[in-house]
Amino acid sequence: MCLTIVSQLTTLGVYAQTQSYNQANNEIDFSHDLSQKWSLEFNVGQSWTTKPGHTSLFSSLAQLYTRAWVHYNPNDKWKLSFFYAFYYNKYVPEIDQREAPEWRSAAQAIYYIKRKRLILTTRWRIEDRHIKNVDSVFEAVDRLRGQIKVVYPLNGSVIAKGVFYGIGSEELFFKTSSKVSGSGLFDRNRVSAGIGYGITNNCQLELSYSNEFLPRPGENQSYNAIQCNVVFTNLLPRIGHALFGKKTPEGSSAN
C-alpha cells in the first residue's frame, strides 16, 4: 500500500532527471528512565556527503544536530513523545545546499505490535519546523511523517548483550508549502534496512543503509546513506556505580 501511495504521489516527478548523492550519517543516543512510564532522551548527530568530482562519503560536512526528548509510556502498547531540536545545515554549493539553520519541535505517537521475537511499530510524527530562508527569516513549515518499522532479534528472544537483530523501515513525509520547502505536498520517501548488535544489555550498535527519494520540480534528488548509531540506556547511573561503587546495607563499598 505504501508503495502504491508513493507511486501515485511521485508520478509527476518520475520522468524528471534524478541527481544522486551518497552520505554517511552517525548518531549517538542517550536515554534515561525516570520511572516505569517516563523517560528522557538526548541525541547528537552529523551527516557527511559526497560532492561532484569527490567520491568519498566524507567529502563535506552537511549537517549537525542536537535533539532532546521526553517520552511517556501509558502502557506496553503506546509510546507518546515530544522533542525540541536544532539542526545546522551547512552551506555546500556543490550539491545545491544553502546554509539553513532550523529549530524543530515535534509530537510523536508509536504503537507497538509484538509477535514472539518480532516487534512491529507504526509511528506518526507531526513536526513544526522553523527554517531560515533566503530572506534570513525563519519560515514555519509543518510536516507529517508516517513510518512502519520491524525489529527482529536473530539469536535471542530479546535485544540484549551478544544478540544481533535485524531492522527494516518504510517512511513517508508530507509537508506544507513555503518558500524554503517548495509547493509540493509530498516531501520524500525513505526506505532503510540494517542490523544491530547488543554490546551490553544497555548499549547497542546499529549499522544500516537507507535511500531517500525526493521528487522535485525539474530535478529529483536521491540520497543513499550509510548510518551508524550508538544507543546508550541509563548511562549516568552506571558510570556513577563504576566510579564510586555501590554501598551495601552495612555501609561498606562493593564493586
Question: What features would you describe in this structure?
Answer:
Pfam families: DUF2490. The protein has one domain (31-242): Porin (Beta Barrel). The longest helix is centred in the last third of the chain and has 10 residues, at 235-244. It has 255 residues and is mainly β. It is built from 2 helices and 13 strands. Mean pLDDT is 86; it is low at 1-14 and 247-255. An 11-stranded mixed barrel has the order 1-2-3-4-5-6-7-8-9-10-11. A two-stranded antiparallel sheet has the order 12-13.
Distance between the termini: 54 Å
Largest sheet: 11 strands, mixed, barrel
Q: Which class best fits the helix and strand makeup?
A: mainly beta
Low-confidence runs (pLDDT<50, min 5 residues)?
1-14, 247-255
Question: How are strands sequenced across the largest beta sheet?
Answer: 1-2-3-4-5-6-7-8-9-10-11
Instruction: Compute the number of helices.
Output: 2
Number-wise, the strands total 13
**Average pLDDT:** 86
Run of helices and strands: HEEEEEEEEEEEHEE
Oligomer designation: single chain
CATH top level is: Mainly Beta
InterPro entries: DUF2490
Pfam family, one: DUF2490
Organism: Mucilaginibacter jinjuensis
Protein name: DUF2490 domain-containing protein
